[in-house]
Design a protein that fits this description.
By secondary structure, the chain is of the alpha/beta class. It has a single domain, classed as TIM Barrel (Alpha-Beta Barrel), CATH 3.20.20. The protein has 13 helices and ten strands. Helix 4 packs across helix 5 and helix 4 packs across helix 12. The radius of gyration is 17 Å and the shape is globular. The protein starts with a helix and ends with a helix.
């Protein structure tokens, strides 16, 4: 049976054909100036990657009234550690959004996309990304290694996303130092925060920094992620729908020393 993820990847491969080839000189001319990983090394509070996401295939429209620049600036002023910009058409996003956000904030910017080819990484770099997302479930081990290596060679940090132990092995194999546990099953789009609780300790044993992605609605959810070893969380829908963003983000800035041993 064809899943939502299958449809997204199929369309992505079609869209890639229209991407122009960038020269190595052009790509390497864009310097990486902001490190998200460095900000995690001595953090005593939960790092927050605040996401700009207009819609999703599972939920439909989330919020199309917000401007990416205004929202990103607000995220920064409220205490976010990084900004994630969804760049896929199924979420009503684009690299244009990322370019605008990069020019407006000083925080690291994550290109959140379904990356399957080097060309996409080149364009993410040219658009101003500091980090990219590589999803283990859509890449074979050799593909993940190739794309991970290329991204790091051109100065990008990489968040390798997993959802089960098999995918964790893929991330460990490429020596990923930043691993995201997606609590959402991309095949069904169902969310289970227990995924972070189950896989978190295994990620921490690998020595990687851990980001818990999806499903964070209230402070208690963030505390559960912290107890499982999370250094940070990635939050989209909750922030995009929040009527009091400053208060919501403040609630999620859980002091790590109070909820997990260090």
């Amino acid at each position: 049976m064809t899943t939502i993820l299958d449809k997204i990847i199929h369309q992505k491969r079609i869209d890639i054909i229209e991407l122009t080839d960038l020269s190595e000189e052009d790509i390497r001319a864009f310097k990486k100036e902001r490190s998200f990983i460095d900000s995690l090394k001595n953090a005593n509070k939960m790092a927050i990657i605040s996401e700009f996401k207009r819609a999703s295939p599972s939920k439909g429209i989330i919020n199309t009234e917000l401007d990416p620049v205004q929202q990103a600036v607000l995220y920064e002023s409220c205490g976010a550690s990084a900004i994630s910009v969804l760049c896929d058409r199924h979420f009503q996003g684009s690299l244009t959004d990322l370019k605008k956000v990069r020019q407006a904030v000083k925080l690291p910017v994550l290109c959140k996309d379904f990356i399957v080819e080097r060309k996409q990484i080149s364009h993410a770099k040219a658009a101003g990304a500091d980090l990219i997302l590589l999803i283990a479930s859509v890449l074979e081990p050799n593909e993940l290694e190739e794309l991970f290596t290329y991204a790091t060679e051109i100065g990008l940090e990489v968040l390798v996303e997993i959802h089960d132990e098999e995918e964790l092995e893929k991330a460990i194999a490429v020596n990923a130092n930043l691993i995201g546990i997606n609590n959402r099953d991309l095949k069904t789009f169902q969310v289970d925060l227990g995924i972070t609780e189950k896989l978190g300790p295994l990620v921490k044993q690998s020595g990687a920094f851990l980001i818990s992605e999806s499903g964070m609605k209230v402070k208690e959810d963030v505390e559960k992620a912290a107890k499982a070893g999370a250094n940070g969380i990635l939050v989209g829908e909750t922030f995009m729908e929040s009527g009091d963003l400053e208060r919501t983000i403040t609630d999620f800035l859980v002091p790590l020393k109070d909820v997990m041993p260090r």
